[in-house]
Amino acid sequence: VSPPIITIPRSYNAAADLLGRNLAAGRGDKTAFIDDRGRCTYAELDRRSSACANALRALGLMREQRVLMCLHDTIDFPTVFLGAIKAGIVPVAVNTLLTRGDYEYMLRDSRARVAVVSAALMPLFEPLLDEIPSLERIIVSGGADGPDALARLIADQPEACEIADTLGDEVCFWLYSSGSTGAPKGTTHRHSSLIATAELFARPILGICEQDTVFSAAKLFFAYGLGNGLTFPMSVGATTVLMAERPTPAAVAKRLVDHQPTLFYGVPTLFASMLASADLPDRAQVGLRLCTSAGEALPEEIGLRWRRHFEVDILDGIGSTEMLHVFLSNRRGDVRYGTTGRPVPGYDIRLVDEDGRPVAPGEVGELQVRGPTASNGYWNNRAKTCATFLGDWTRSGDKYSLTEDGYYVYAGRSDDMLKVSGIYVSPIEVESVLVSHEAVLEAAVVGCEDDDQLIKPKAFIVLKPEVVPSEALADQLKAHVKSLLAPYKYPRWFEFVEELPKTATGKIQRFKLRRRA
Ligand code: 3SK
């Protein structure tokens, strides 16, 4: 299949395109977004995002400066994201599940002068205003009316704005990506990449069209959610359902029934927990035509059970924050459960050994990908940029093998990272929190499969002399991790051991623990 030809003019503003194409097509009165409070048409979103662009400029933000967004999924997300882009200001969308320390790092690293934050997250951000000299203002989304309320700032501004004369190649927005060691990396993306993900993946692979209503359990601050819920539907004038709360089976089921989305994007953990839930709707209650999964490999059994229940397929695929969206995927009418499918036309894939040489057919190798949506690199981090971006090729850190008939099969990570509910967890970060507990001498964290064959963290703990292992202590350690790290990172199981397996040089042999887990 030859890839779609994408021609993006040299002068190009992604927000102006995503909104302008819908107004030009006569879709001004069509609903673009539905959130928990109401809905917003394409014309309203155009006006609101322009007013937001004016508000950010009025706060003194200049082109190429960053605005950090820590927002739950409401209509304020596309308003601020597109408003900033219209003004040539660079939105940095960050995970809403992190700790104050994580946000402090990202604010200092990005030097965002303004942050736009959901009211519920303000207790984490408020103290940072005094601590971080480069941060001048925090704008609150969804809270009480006041001088720093987003709604008020927008209401005070004209509903038309001057569009910054950006280039397709210019940095448009950032997302943070985490690795097994070191701080998260500001991953820069260009204006042209947003629309390219829609043209390469959403149109041909998902067949997305104006008549679709889409719902993504993955939030907009993830690269996966951003494409699913913003770029893809806007690229064709479809409607997106947004949900601010956590994607529990009950909350997701309610949206599937109430709003009748035709396209639903999830992650394996959610598909598994929905299938096990009493809240699972019947086929007749939903309007689904297709589902997608990414973030971690979808176990074959989950895909088959979902299809039996809903009579629709889940297209399992893989993407990355660095490539912006999915580059390897199953296709409609060509789903091979237990595999991640075939390359999305427009992307090239190669599997290489540790020396960068192609592996023999059937062998496991690290997946590298080449395509037009690769990040420009990590902000102010040359060493990690050089380690990940090898000329045109981007290292994924995922290991794969290729079947004889061309389907890719996931074979784990080439680093120690875990993917938990589709989000990266660094075992080293969890271990360092565990050893900060007074009872712990040493800790090692590895991935362990749960009953649905999905990976969750498991901790092996060496206690200090005199400390007695117990269930109660395991609960204390769990609470300790939860109090210091993002909630999804805590180990689900604890095993107390006399010692950890180590190399002669003292390095923990995680592969031995993985086998044992
Ligand atoms: O985790 C993935 O597979 C993924 C998919 C799309 C976009 C971003 C990511 C990380």
> How many helices in DSSP terms?
15
Largest beta-sheet characterization: 9 strands, mixed
Strand order of the largest sheet: 2-1-10-9-11-12-13-14-15
Q: What portion of residues is helical?
A: 25-40%
Strand content: 15-25%
- Let me know the number of strands: 26
Radius of gyration: 23 Å
Average pLDDT reading: 95
Instruction: Report the span from N to C terminus.
Output: 42 Å
Q: Which stretches of 5+ consecutive residues score pLDDT under 50?
A: none
* Oligomer type: single chain
Q: What structural class should be given to the helix and strand makeup?
A: alpha/beta
Q: Looking at the structure, what is the overall shape?
A: globular
What hetero molecules are in the model? 2-methylbenzoic acid
Please supply descriptive tags for the structure shown above.
single chain; 517 residues; alpha/beta; nine-stranded mixed sheet; seven-stranded mixed sheet; 15 helices; 26 strands; 24% strand; binds 2-methylbenzoic acid
Describe this structure in words.
With 517 residues, the protein is α/β, with parallel strands linked by helices. The chain is built from 15 helices and 26 strands. The strands form five sheets. Strands 2-1-10-9-11-12-13-14-15 form a nine-stranded mixed sheet, sandwiched between helices. A seven-stranded mixed sheet has the order 6-5-3-4-7-8-18, with helices on both faces. Strands 16, 17, 19, 20 and 21 form a five-stranded antiparallel sheet that branches. Helix 1 (14-24) packs antiparallel against helix 2 (42-58). The longest helix is centred in the N-terminal third of the chain and has 17 residues, at 42-58. Bound molecules: 2-methylbenzoic acid (3SK). 2-methylbenzoic acid is lined by residues 223-224, 294-295, 318-321, 325-326, 422.
